[in-house]
Every structure is written in C-alpha cells, then in structure tokens.
Amino acid sequence: MPTRNATAHWSGGLKTGKGKLTLQSGVLKDAGYDYKSRFEEGPLTNPEELIGAAHAGCFAMFLSSLLEGNSTPATNLEVKGDVTLTPGEAGPTITKIVLHLVGEVPNITKDKFEELAKDAKAKCPISKALASVPSVELDINLK
After folding, report:
1. Phi and psi torsions of 75, nearest 5°
2. What is the model's pTM?
3. In the structure, what pLDDT confidence band is assigned to residue 115 with cuts at 50, 70 and 90?
4. Residues 33, 48, 6, 56: is their CA dihedral positive or negative?
C-alpha cells in the first residue's frame, strides 16, 4: 500500500502566526490554519477538524465493507466526527471523539447494524491510531 503525506508550513509565533496545510492529492492546497481557528472560533481549518474528517471517512469505508460482507450493502452512510480539544497543564489534548452515524441500509435489523458499526469503530485504521484518546463514542441511527 502506498504511503500518504501532507505538508504543514507555519510562520510566526503561536497566537500571531499563520500556517498552510497541503495534502499530497492536492485536494487541500495551502489551506490556512491559525490559533484562532484551533482554540477559539475562526474561519480557517485546524488539525482536529482534519482528524474528524479522517476518522469519519475511515469508519464509513470500514463499515461499508462490513455491511457488504453481511450481504446488506448501505444505500447511504453519513458520518460526522466531532473532536474535542481540551486545555491542560501538559498542553492541549484530544479528550473525546464522537462519531455520529446515520445509515440507510435495507434489509438489516437495528441490532445487526449496531453490531457492525461497533466493530467498524474498533477496527478501522484511524480508530486504532487514535486509541490513546480517552473517550471515543459512537452515536448510531438507522433510517
């Protein structure tokens, strides 16, 4: 499997500096990020937002595979990843991630959908990489 990469550039101090993020694919090129967008409210991106997107995307793909293997492929999976960054004496820490799942899956029971969703949460590569986060929750809704 190929190695993927992203590049971060930062200029200046923490609170007054600015940065740019670029993904290898070029889908995100020179996307701005700064202190305000990370620790307050601002219009630019931030690392936690990107972690939320990565986790949601990985989880959705893994769950899709499990559903297909169960002969109940999804019509639609919508996943939102909420990532909480909490200040602390040792520096800011990601303390909580919530994956909000809304699925449209014909011919599946609610129990089976929940079982496969929990399995996907445990086994997707991004979940494994984020295993040190104290709380990773899954909010499951089947339409």
Report:
1. -80, -40
2. 0.95
3. very high
4. negative
Helix (H) / strand (E) element for 59: namely: helix 47-69
Euclidean distance between CA atoms 93 and 105, whole angstroms:
35
Of 81, 135, 83, 139, the closest CA to residue 113 belongs to 139
Among 120, 44, 123, CA closest to 79: 120
Where do the domains of the chain lie, and which CATH numbers do they carry?
6-39 (no CATH), 47-142 (3.30.300.20)
Q: Are 79 and 118 in contact (CB under 8 A)?
A: no
Cβ neighbours, 10 Å, residue 53: 17
